[in-house]
């Protein structure tokens, strides 16, 4: 039976065997139609991930802020004709920290079977290595940009940490990473710990946990490097 | 430089190539010491995952509720002598929904480098396929057993769903899965949606999203099957 298949993509320029099971490559080659955010990077990722069919025969369906929602309604039509459709992320897991869940929600409403495949999640790799509670955690996306909103969010997250023992995870636009770390180091309670996890799965990988104020001294250079921030008591 | 390496384990009886990158096997064979929850299953998992050294030469360090904390303090000593130490989960990702973070927290305090490896996370696979918000989500572990605590928890989680657009994820002791689904179907608001994700990565995999009350009709048989529950609006 045809399915919607969710394909993770390596998070950075690594050999795909470092972060993807070989099974994913087998399944990848059963698909001729892919829903993607950006066609150019999707072509490149297909090649890197060992897609063996001529890329010119592939149908790419774009899913981004320019896509007309009436078009999206037809994206899963090939499945009714017995053909698998792939959903590929730009990096990491599809439908996690990206807008792919529009498609999976549509598949669920239509009773279409979904096959999620294993791959790298920078959120989970960071959580595993942080030393923080992995039995209760939340991913909060991006913090507000304005200082007042940011301060209010930190106050709420610190409440969850102390009241619910819940690790709090977030990300930032990569060119604002250094400012965010400085802001966290200054505005969190001194006893709150911060884990900074950067360039995960890459040779330059950096994962370190310190108390909030300690990050004011010798902070790492995070500018434009993909980084996950975690806080806990 | 020697490191603490975090090894995911397949979640069920599948070919490890379905859910583990081949790189993990290479790294596995650099370790002679493993911190594990249960030695018997760890031996079996090592074999399944392609460990090629004689298992009798392996040092297993047990980490479970019977372990003396003064012993744990020495578990990372081999790293100072230049030897990698592996931390293996019973199934899925180490330090996620298991007590492994005692070890990673100790490594972070000692400045030991940690290498988290990619593998199957039933939490993330379920989230990907649920159709729910993957840009904001929380894993809450196990719900309280008593009905009053359970009802209070559901009320709090529904608040997060509506106020913060945050997908709520939890698990249950596998023999209580059916009761939990019935409880959720009855006590959540009728417009709240429930995703049930069961036997992930296995041939019997089942992932389905429906409105709360719809689960009262034809519920799946979840008894003793590993299941993730997700709720969202």
Task: Tell me what the structure shows.
- 2 copies of one chain form a homodimer.
- In chain A, 31% of the residues lie in helices and 19% in strands.
- Chain A has 2 domains: 4-116, Cobalt-precorrin-4 Transmethylase, domain 1 (3-Layer(aba) Sandwich); 122-232, Methyltransferase, Cobalt-precorrin-4 Transmethylase, Domain 2 (2-Layer Sandwich).
- The model of chain A has no long low-confidence stretch (mean pLDDT 95).
- With 233 residues, the first copy, chain A, is of the alpha/beta class.
- Chain A is elongated and about 60 Å long.
- Chain A is built from 8 helices and 10 strands.
- In chain A, the strands form 2 sheets. In chain A, strands 3-2-4-1-5 form a 5-stranded parallel beta sheet, sandwiched between helices. In chain A, strands 6-7-10-8-9 form a 5-stranded mixed beta sheet, sandwiched between helices.
Count of runs of 4 or more consecutive helical residues of chain A: 8
The chain-level mean pLDDT of chain A equals 95
Which overall shape of chain A is indicated by the principal axes computed on the Cα atoms? elongated
Number of strands of chain A: 10
CATH architecture of the largest domain in chain A: 3-Layer(aba) Sandwich
Name the pair of protein chains with the most residues at their interface, and give those residue counts.
Answer: A-B, 57 and 57 residues
Read across the widest sheet of chain A, the strand sequence of neighbours is 3-2-4-1-5
Helical proportion of chain A? 25-40%
